[in-house]
Design a protein that fits this description.
Number of strands: 0
CATH topology: Rna Polymerase Sigma Factor, Chain: A
Structural class: mainly alpha
Helix content: 55-70%
Order of helices and strands: HHH
Strand content: under 5%
CATH class: Mainly Alpha
Number of helices: 3
CATH architecture: Orthogonal Bundle
Length: 82
């Protein structure tokens, strides 16, 4: 399904990945890996409310931070969004 919650997931994962890049915790080429991992692990649904999108955004940010932690690329904690 194109659209739906996918843009919110992509944006959230991208923001966490870019934040890690700017903090010199990951390389530039790691950014798409984070995004792809989070998108592929997420269930894309029809977007029906702002509340749903806020929850999806928070879950995607958490998933991106977890990916960075598990990958061993994230050397220190990223600031929390929300």
């Amino acid at each position: 399904m194109a659209g739906g919650t996918a843009p919110a997931i992509l944006n959230a994962a991208n923001e966490i990945a870019v934040e890690a890049f700017l903090a010199e915790q990951v390389g530039f080429m790691d950014i798409p890996n984070v995004i792809e991992s989070v998108l592929s692990a997420s269930m894309i649904e029809e977007a029906y409310s702002i509340e749903q999108l806020v929850a999806v955004d928070a879950a995607a940010r958490q998933a991106a931070k977890l990916w960075l932690k598990k990958s061993g690329l994230n050397k220190s904690g990223l600031k929390s969004h929300g």
